[in-house]
Design goal:
Blueprint: H1 3-13, H2 16-40, H3 42-49, H4 52-61, H5 64-84, H6 88-106, H7 110-135
Helix pairs in contact: 2-3, 2-5, 2-7, 3-5, 5-6, 6-7
């Protein structure tokens, strides 16, 4: 296989549309992992991830363990829709708000910085999807 054919194959395979779906799938994996963890062990996940200030505010409305369980359900449903690429215009804003909430809860640290980078990617994904749908 010549270098030109290989280069053409790689450039066609890794175009913007494929990159968008790969990133979308990666975000879905992150959401699915943490969502399943929240569904299986909401009490442990609440103790691990929810700060005391946020926990106090949540307790006013609903027990923290139930909130974490509902958060897990939301994350798993969002990840399913991201994988099957349906209702993206609805799911991506939900994912954006999920990551904003996670960042606010975590405060300023390396985990929040990682989630901020994912958030920026999801915002880009949202606007690039809107732009791609508008062109059609």
């Amino acid at each position: 296989m010549s270098c030109v054919v290989w280069y053409t194959f790689v450039m066609n395979f890794f175009n913007e549309k494929v990159a968008r779906y790969v990133f979308q799938f990666a975000v879905a994996l992150v959401l699915a992992y943490f969502g399943v963890q929240a569904l299986l062990n909401p009490d442990i996940q609440a103790a691990l991830w929810v700060s005391q200030n946020i926990s106090t505010m949540i307790e006013i409305i609903i027990p923290v363990e139930k909130f974490i369980f509902l958060l897990g359900v939301t994350q798993v449903i969002a990840s399913i829709f991201l994988v099957i690429n349906k209702f993206i215009h609805i799911v991506l804003p939900v994912v954006i708000f999920l990551f904003i909430g996670i960042i606010i809860n975590l405060g300023f640290n390396e985990i929040a910085l990682r989630d901020f980078v994912i958030l920026i990617g999801v915002v880009y994904l949202y606007f690039s999807t809107k732009t791609a749908n508008a062109k059609v």
